[in-house]
Design goal:
Blueprint lengths: L1 H22 L17 E2 L2 E2 H5 L10 H9 L2 H24 L10 H11 L2 H10 L3 H4 L1 H7 L11 H11 L10 H4 L10 E2 L5 E2 L3 E7 L5 E7 L3 H29 L10 H15 L2 H14 L6 E2 L12 E5 L3 E2 L6 H22 L1 E3 L7 E4 L4 E3 L5 E3 L2 H16 L2 H11 L7 E2 L8 E2 L5 H14 L8 H11 L10 H20 L5 H14 L4 H11 L8 H8 L18 H9 L5 H9 L2 H9 L4 H19 L19 H5 L7 H31 L2 H37 L11
Parallel strand pairs: 7-12
Antiparallel strand pairs: 1-2, 3-5, 4-5, 5-6, 6-8, 9-11, 10-13, 11-12, 14-15
């Protein structure tokens, strides 16, 4: 039976590889010439066998890879046969132990060994699945978790020889004195660990010390990494080609027309492109610097410092991070690291457009100074401005359960076709659904599906289930290739956060950054959307939209008793209004009808805004005039903690000089911009005559009212401070403006 399966796999691979060779017949398929080298063996790896693949190193080139391997069909066939055998053996072993007690099962270790043994592509899949017990179950997750930091290592001899070759050393003895017994002056490092500190999918890390006494991490690439990635990509490509043709044949027999696979082939290419980037350690060093600079404004994110003098394309040396991974942290510190990592990645998604695409537990550390440190920058993802705006819109819409806006966001980013395509059941062909109410119908079905899916409005994974498992049966959808790495990022983050807080809501944590992006659009469409959302055609404020933006304090608690997600609008405005990206917001503020706004603010409907303003005044006075109260933490080290908007507000984050300078500039420019806008509105109201003078009078009255309310609140707080010494727990009631 196994022999027949193996023969079928070989036949399949050969046929498909030859098909690819035919499609590439117009391309010159010259095999790369192996470079001459005196080294014939790197530990267990044959240099001559690997050297011929070196011509594929560099940027991912689909035609070059498929053309090269189409001349080596037996290599592809053998790999397919091996992968098929391992898959079937592991599947059978897993099922055979289903009835055994948990303490007698060995299938977890078998699964881990099988995934590790299949190479980098398999390990990447396993790392992602290890964070998703909702997809593969707790037992499989636990079995796969060690793939994040404890992959199957290659030999130390191969690693040392690789270092010697890369730096043109005489022998491995010249790596470090403790390795070969030579004098330190003859060696590359002052010391070099004899065993790897961690083994990843494409390389492994050693701890070393430089001659100037710096502790460093030396990542050495697997000698066979390039060959394995190239062959595995070819296997995926040719197998998908067969599946595509088989499905097209079946659809033709049923009279359904050719199979439209959308962009699955592009998705396979996107994954391969990311893996080829990971093989370029020079690119990884550049990626790390760019990622650090992009998130400097947060102040609590860092990356290891790169040492170019001790690095090559296949050996990367960085500073050694003194910190701990999630599994070595207390519950409290684990919650801190998770919250900071989620904030950093969501800020990347909607603000900077440069996202770490591999943030599993092994690539995140909490440093001793309280900063979250990201590791491994081979796999990164870029996001265009209009896509960031659509994601921001989708996050806000999902939290507000505004499924009409969420449906528009799906169409904007390419998940839904334009025009829409629809079918009543999966056996029918898709037909154009270009009707005025088409998107509304999709939104209604989306609302029903989200309501019946566990975690529908709080989990990214649940949303993926709704789109792929429910709605795609009736509505034609694609997964844009650029989204693939983003999906991996947030599925992984969500899995990490769920370990700390099972009720974690990823949309709630992303809301503050989504709001900032919404207020600072960069595309023409985004600018127009912002203006339409705030102002009518005659420049009157859209009051309901404004109240939705800042939140309604009278509805702070939802039905389940949990705090309502609410972004800090003041912080978002401070960050945006004085920044270079805030031009659209400043123009909307400048153009607003001040007389209409004044009438709204002094009316009954403006009570909530006046209340918030008075509390802000009181808070500023309290901070300036009263001594700070020392907060006592009631979180026990082994207790359950919550990751939500409230905990985020109270979180004490690390900062950097760059982030402090940025906040200082933001506040300075905010004051200047606000002063300019106020002068502009006063001048305009004076020129507009009686209506303008009435508006100024209302605004003056409003200012006095807010100041009085703020002072009353401040006096109440001061009184409370004194009364607490006598009557602990004395209640606080904020004064109304």
């Amino acid at each position: 039976m196994i022999g027949r399966r193996r023969a079928a796999c070989w036949a399949l691979a050969i046929a498909l590889t030859l098909q690819h060779a035919e499609t590439l017949s117009t391309t010159t398929l010259t095999a790369p010439k192996p470079a001459s080298t005196a080294v014939q063996q790197l530990g267990e790896f044959n240099v001559a066998q690997l050297q011929e693949y070196e011509g594929l190193r560099g940027r991912f080139d689909r035609d070059k890879i498929l053309g090269f391997l189409s001349r080596r069909p037996w290599t592809v066939a053998g790999r397919l046969a091996y992968v098929s055998r391992v898959f079937l053996d592991t599947k059978n072993a897993w099922e055979s132990q289903e009835s055994l007690p948990e303490d007698q099962r060995t299938r977890g270790a078998m699964l881990n060994a099988a995934m590790a043994g299949l190479g980098p592509v398999s390990v990447k899949v396993g790392q992602t699945l290890s964070q998703r017990p909702d997809l593969v179950g707790e037992e499989a997750c636990e079995a796969l978790k060690s793939l994040q930091t404890k992959n199957r290592p290659f030999s130390n001899a191969a690693a040392l020889q690789s270092v010697a070759v890369e730096f043109k050393l005489n022998s491995t003895k010249n790596v470090a004195p403790n390795i070969g017994g030579l004098d330190a002056s003859e060696c590359l490092f002052a010391s070099f660990s004899e065993e790897p500190a961690a083994a990843a999918s494409l390389g492994q890390v050693y701890k070393a010390r430089t001659h100037d006494n710096r502790e460093v991490a030396v990542k050495v690439q697997r000698p066979d990494a390039l060959r394995t990635v190239a062959i595995d990509y070819t296997c995926f490509a040719v197998v998908w080609k067969l599946i595509e043709r088989w499905w097209s044949f079946q659809r033709t027999l049923r009279g359904e027309g050719p199979f439209d696979n959308g962009d699955i082939g592009d998705v396979v290419d996107t994954v391969a492109d990311g893996l080829f980037d990971e093989l370029d350690y020079d690119l990884e060093a550049l990626n790390a610097d760019r990622f650090r600079e992009s998130l400097d404004f947060l102040g609590f994110v860092d990356v290891p410092t790169f040492l170019p003098e001790l690095s090559t394309n296949r050996v990367l040396t960085t500073e050694w991070i003194r910190g701990a991974h999630l599994d070595a942290l207390s519950v409290k510190d684990g919650a801190l690291m998770t919250q900071l990592a989620v904030e950093a990645c969501t800020a990347s998604l909607v603000l900077t457009g440069y996202v770490h695409a591999d943030p599993h537990e092994g690539n995140l550390m909490l440093r001793e100074d309280g900063k979250v440190v990201f590791l491994d920058f081979g796999l990164m993802s870029g996001v265009d401005g209009y896509i960031m705006e659509s994601f921001a819109q989708g996050i806000r819409a999902c939290l507000a359960e505004d499924y009409e806006s969420l449906a528009r966001a799906f169409q904007d980013v390419g998940f839904l076709t334009t025009p829409l395509q629809f079918r009543e059941n999966p056996k029918q062909a898709y037909e154009l659904y270009d009707t005025p109410n088409g998107l509304d119908q999709f939104a209604n079905e989306l609302r029903d599906a989200m309501a019946t899916t566990e975690g529908g409005t709080s989990r990214f994974g649940a949303l993926a289930e709704v789109l792929n498992g429910k709605l795609s049966k009736r509505w034609k959808m694609f997964t844009p290739p650029y989204c693939l790495l983003l999906i991996r990022t947030f599925l992984t983050l969500e899995g990490i956060a769920a370990q700390v807080d099972p009720d974690f809501n990823i949309y709630e944590m992303a809301l503050p950054f989504a709001l900032r992006r919404s207020l600072a659009p960069s595309s023409k469409e985004g600018v127009e959307t912002l203006r339409r959302s705030l102002l009518t055609e005659d420049d009157r404020i859209k009051w309901d939209a404004l109240m939705s933006l800042i939140g309604d304090e009278q509805e702070e608690v939802v039905d389940d008793g949990k705090p309502k997600a609410e972004a800090d609008v003041g912080a978002a405005l401070t960050a945006v209004v004085g920044s270079s990206s805030g031009a659209a917001l400043r123009k909307a503020i400048r153009d607003v009808d001040a007389a209409d706004l004044a009438a709204r603010l002094v009316s009954r409907s403006g009570r909530d805004v006046r209340r918030r303003a008075a509390l802000s005044v009181a808070g500023a006075m309290e901070k300036a005039l009263l001594p700070r109260r020392r907060k006592v933490s009631h979180v026990e080290e082994d207790s359950v903690v919550s990751l939500n908007a409230q905990s985020a507000k109270g979180l004490r984050r690390a900062s950097s000089p760059a982030s402090r300078r940025l906040r200082h500039r933001q506040k300075r420019w905010q004051r200047r911009v606000v002063a300019h806008l106020v002068r502009s509105h006063i001048s305009r109201q004076i020129r507009s005559g009686r209506r303008g003078l009435f508006a100024l009078a209302k605004l003056s009255y409003l200012g006095v009212r807010i100041m009085v309310g703020g002072m009353l609140q401040f006096l109440w707080v001061a009184l409370l401070r004194g009364m607490e010494r006598i009557m602990p727990g004395f209640p606080r009631r904020p004064a109304a403006a």
